[in-house]
Structure formats: structure tokens, C-alpha cells
């Protein structure tokens, strides 16, 4: 009986699950960007500046991973999760922008 | 521009956002969040494209290669900034019960991507010919 009620309580549109998967996809995208950054840094002999930029990109990727993990846990905690805090959205965007700056340093 | 700066201040002041209007149905907020994430993925894809141009077009002259890569990276930065700005505007509009903000950005971005694609085709064809 409780299993049936559990199904009824859940949002039939599976909105929290879809949002969780969107975070997963975005993490995957940032992984691809980080892998390309490592490839660029190691291509044609690694320089000291290249290694530093590469390490920064990896740190940013880790930060994004933790951010996504936190949000996913918040989504799973309640049946009607609260909206994304603006600070977390800004941090996610800052990660992407800092990755772009490191990329510019690597490419030039 | 001033509206954008005011918006930036709100990114770091969640309690100020919560004072405005009433909380919408959580599903609307989650849909808005997914749209934000989709734009963030677009930005990350543009950044990845910048790396790809640098890595996979080694025959291109240095100026062209770096210029194209930097243009893609700049587009990625713009796209991510716009993602969070638009997300915040939608969130506030929903709280106040207003219409969602209209945006020229998707049209602008598609025109830029189309131009870059045409430029790439030209570069590849000329590269074969020359």
C-alpha cells in the first residue's frame, strides 16, 4: 500500500529527476572541456604556464562537480525542492567563465 | 546595462529575491533551472569548440587559428553570462507574475554560429584547393 502511495506522491512529470539529469549532462560537458584542456596543455611539449592553466581547469572541473553534487542532493531531499539559489547559479557560471579564460591562456 | 548590473547584485543576494512576489510552483522553477543548464551546456560546448579549433586545425595559419579559437571562447563567456542573467530575470518575472522576458540572444547566437560554420567550410575548401 505504501508503495502505491509513494508513486502517487511523486510528480508525474518527474521534474526533479529531469533536473538531476540536466545537471549530470552539464557536468559531462564540463568534463569534455577539461579533457580538451589537458590535451591542449600536453600537446607539443608542456610548458610551466600550460601546466598551471591545466591544473586550474581541473580544479574548476572539480568545483563544478561538487556544486552539481550538492544541488542533486538538495533535489533528492524533498518531494518539492526549492528553486536553485542564485549564488549557486552564479558559481556554476563563474566556473565556466574561468575555464574559458584558462583556455584563452592555453591557446594563445 | 544598468539593469544588468542590478541583476548581478541579486545573484549574490538570494534573500532579496525571496522578498519579491510569491514563490511559484516548484516545477516552474525547475524548468527554468533546466533551461539555464541547457544554456550553460551551450557555453561549455562553445568553449570546447575553441579548444577543438586550436587542436584539430593544425594546418591553419596561426592568426586565423587563434582568432577563431578566441572568438569561440568569447562566445562561450557571453553565453554563460547571458544564461545566468536570463535565468534570474525569468525567476523574478515568475515571482511577480509577469510575462517571461523576451530575448534577442538565441537569434544572435544562431547567426554567429552559422557565420562561423560557413567560414570553416570556406577555410577547409580553400585549404584543399591551395
From TrEMBL, chain A:
Its main location: membrane. It is found in: Endomembrane system. Keywords: Membrane, Transmembrane, Transmembrane helix. The keyword Membrane applies. Residues 11-74 form the DUF202 domain. Pfam families: DUF202. GO terms for cellular component: endomembrane system. It is a multi-pass membrane protein. InterPro entries: DUF202. The chain crosses the membrane at residues 48-68, 89-107. This is DUF202 domain-containing protein. It comes from Streptomyces griseoruber.
Automatic annotation (TrEMBL), chain B:
This is DUF202 domain-containing protein. The lineage of its organism: Bacteria, Bacillati, Actinomycetota, Actinomycetes, Kitasatosporales. The chain crosses the membrane at residues 36-56, 62-84, 105-129. Pfam families: DUF202 (PF02656). InterPro entries: DUF202, IM_YidH-like. Keywords: Cell membrane, Membrane, Transmembrane, Transmembrane helix. The keyword Cell membrane applies. Residues 27-93 form the DUF202 domain. It is a multi-pass membrane protein. It is found in: Cell membrane. GO terms for cellular component: plasma membrane. It comes from Streptomyces griseoruber.
Amino acid at each position: 500500500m505504501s508503495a502505491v502511495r509513494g508513486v502517487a506522491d511523486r510528480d508525474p512529470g518527474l521534474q526533479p529527476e529531469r533536473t538531476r539529469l540536466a545537471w549530470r549532462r552539464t557536468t559531462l560537458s564540463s568534463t569534455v572541456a577539461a579533457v580538451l584542456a589537458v590535451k591542449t596543455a600536453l600537446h607539443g611539449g608542456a610548458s610551466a604556464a600550460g601546466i598551471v592553466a591545466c591544473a586550474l581547469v581541473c580544479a574548476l572541473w572539480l568545483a563544478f562537480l561538487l556544486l552539481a553534487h550538492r544541488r542533486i542532493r538538495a533535489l533528492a531531499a524533498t518531494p518539492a525542492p526549492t528553486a536553485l539559489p542564485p549564488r549557486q547559479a552564479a558559481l556554476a557560471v563563474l566556473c565556466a567563465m574561468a575555464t574559458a579564460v584558462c583556455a584563452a591562456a592555453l591557446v594563445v | 546595462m544598468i539593469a544588468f548590473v542590478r541583476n548581478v547584485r541579486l545573484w549574490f543576494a538570494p534573500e532579496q529575491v525571496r522578498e519579491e512576489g510569491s514563490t511559484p510552483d516548484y516545477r516552474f522553477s525547475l524548468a527554468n533551472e533546466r533551461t539555464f543548464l541547457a544554456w550553460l551546456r551551450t557555453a561549455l560546448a562553445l568553449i570546447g569548440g575553441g579548444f577543438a579549433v586550436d587542436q584539430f586545425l593544425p594546418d591553419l595559419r596561426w592568426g586565423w587559428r587563434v582568432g577563431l579559437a578566441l572568438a569561440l571562447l568569447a562566445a562561450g563567456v557571453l553565453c554563460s553570462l547571458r544564461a545566468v542573467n536570463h535565468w534570474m530575470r525569468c525567476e523574478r518575472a515568475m515571482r511577480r507574475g509577469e510575462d517571461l522576458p523576451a530575448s534577442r540572444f538565441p537569434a544572435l547566437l544562431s547567426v554567429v554560429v552559422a557565420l562561423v560554420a560557413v567560414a570553416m567550410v570556406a577555410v577547409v575548401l580553400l585549404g584543399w584547393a591551395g
